[in-house]
Amino acid sequence: MAYFKVAFGFLVTAFLSATVSLAHPGLGFGWGGVGAPGGQSGAPSYGLFPQFYQFSCPQAEDIVMSVLEKAIAKEPRMAASLLRLHFHDCFVQGCDASILLDNSATIVSEKNSLPNRNSVRGFEVIDEIKARLEEACPQTVSCADILAMAARGSTVFSGGPSWELPLGRRDSKTASLSTSNNNIPPPNSTLQNLITLFQRQGLDEVDLVALSGGHTIGVARCATFKQRLYNQNGNNLPDQTLERTYYYGLKSVCPKSGGDNNISPLDFGSPVKFDNLYFKLILWGKGLLNSDEVLLTGNVGNTMELVKAYAKDENLFFKQFAKSMIKMGNISPLTGFNGEVRKNCRLVN
């Protein structure tokens, strides 16, 4: 009889556990676990897993992709903006959608940090995705997961790789302007500075070079590369690594004074196509930002070899980019009962 009671109790517990897991996908999958930042193995961690919305919002990814497809068809550059949004989110407090929060009585927005001010964009596309998801599955899909799905979708719609995306992030109730100013690598970074900032997130040199390859799409403002054209080393001379013809072309876009918001493609050969031309351009002295160029000339670690390898083999770059995006998406997510699922991505509930 005692055995029967134990067995019956076990069955009831198992049934209740399964029922709760179905109602709240993620419970019973290690939610709330805290490991090393970045999920060092690159494998899904912290209870994030691709089927997270399988029962609670099975149409989530279709909704994201349908909004993205229209937005990118209307403005191809939007793909790069959404990819960058995910990157600038994950490097601050982890992948928690803190970058989406507007100023309020309790929030000092990250949108006004030096790396983000006047340059980060794509918020209206995220708003539209969120509105559609709230209609279909109220308060179910987090803004942090929307950013991760939008980054992958933007890569795919630009001709790049796809990957199986771990989901289940929740949204922060806080933002950090100071961390945004200090953790996002600036465009004039030295190679050692880039490596240090990536290591702080649990990302290594391979991740650094592969994720820099996201610059195969998108543009940069004159303000981010002006130093290379006119005063690279504090001596009023240009960066000697710039190929001459490319240098003169950039000068026509980016004058010595003014024009800070003028833009130039990061990969002028195929600015809206996700490919490996970015790495070839670096080899030819035609990388736009100092942070691109130093991957080749920085003389630290193995970044030069990686640039050459990805320039030679696009498939190798695509495979590693997908792995590194998964790893970056695993940086310190909020899971379980931490954080919340915002109704409006710009405001805490």
Automatic annotation (TrEMBL):
Gene Ontology BP annotations: hydrogen peroxide catabolic process; response to oxidative stress
Q: Name one GO molecular function term.
A: heme binding
Record-marked site positions (Transition state stabilizer): 84
The cofactors it requires, by name, are: heme b; Ca(2+)
Answer yes or no on keyword Cytoplasm.
no
Q: Which compartment or compartments is the protein found in?
A: Secreted
- EC no.? 1.11.1.7
Top EC class for this record? oxidoreductase
Q: Which UniProt keywords apply?
A: Calcium, Disulfide bond, Glycoprotein, Heme, Hydrogen peroxide, Iron, Metal-binding, Oxidoreductase, Peroxidase, Secreted, Signal
Among InterPro entries, the record links this protein to: Haem_peroxidase, Haem_peroxidase_sf, Peroxidase_pln, Peroxidases_AS, Peroxidases_heam-ligand_BS, Secretory_peroxidase
- Residues reported in the UniProt entry to bind heme b: 215
Q: Does the keyword Isomerase apply?
A: no
Tell me what reaction this enzyme catalyses: 2 a phenolic donor + H2O2 = 2 a phenolic radical donor + 2 H2O
Residues the entry annotates as binding Ca(2+) 1? 89, 92, 94, 96, 98, 110
What is this protein's name? Peroxidase
Q: Which organism is it from?
A: Gossypium laxum
Q: What is the lineage of its organism?
A: Eukaryota, Viridiplantae, Streptophyta, Embryophyta, Tracheophyta
